[in-house]
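Input/output pair, single chain:
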Amino acid sequence: MITSPLKSIPAAYSGKIGQVVDDARGRINKVNEWKTLETSAGKLSVVTFATFEDISRLKFDRQFGEHSGFRSLYTRSESLMMRACEQEVNVVIAVCENTIVGFALLACPDADQRWAGLGPGKVLEVKAIEVVRSWRKSGLAKVLVEGMLSYPRVEERIIYLVGYTWIWDLVGAGLTGAQYHRMMVRLFQPFGFTECKTNEPNICLDPDNLFMCRTGKNVSDRLKDDFKWLSFGVYPQ
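Output:
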């Protein structure tokens, strides 16, 4: 489920330190990378594949919490720390002065979600993307999406995202549900995501809810078809 993105394009990165983490077969599994970024709101670091240890050393901005008509999906850093310990997860964090001011999460679908029915190693979900109100309109959301898609096997996966109007920060953004929907589409389309159809009941509750998908270049036709049918509740044989 997706929360608060930004719209503008940031300045270029400067400097990076990367650590390649291999799996048991010697293939690149993930890259824990720190990048320095200059934005209109100031300088910060963006970390891809943030580890439990990375997050534990940082503070979690107090703006991740309760607001009028909106509650952050993650209100404690411990929740992101636990996610960082899972398999096939990319936790991306934006850090300013040792404080997390933005995060994004790419992970496998939860077991009770219909797309988990395709089996492991086939589908990933954009679980969250959020930036504190004081850092919005700095271009950070685009950077967080780029960080999520640094996943080494991204072209072998179908990635989807679901957005619900009742979890978006419409008050903070000063937008209607329809306007927020369009903003989300503008954010993700440049990265290969397209709006898709589904009969999933929660998504269908509001016409401004969002369902977008990105199909990797190396995804088989069989998986494409299975995903399409599963979007309408028809499970693969």
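The chain has one domain: 13-230. Residues 3-28 have pLDDT under 50 and may be disordered.
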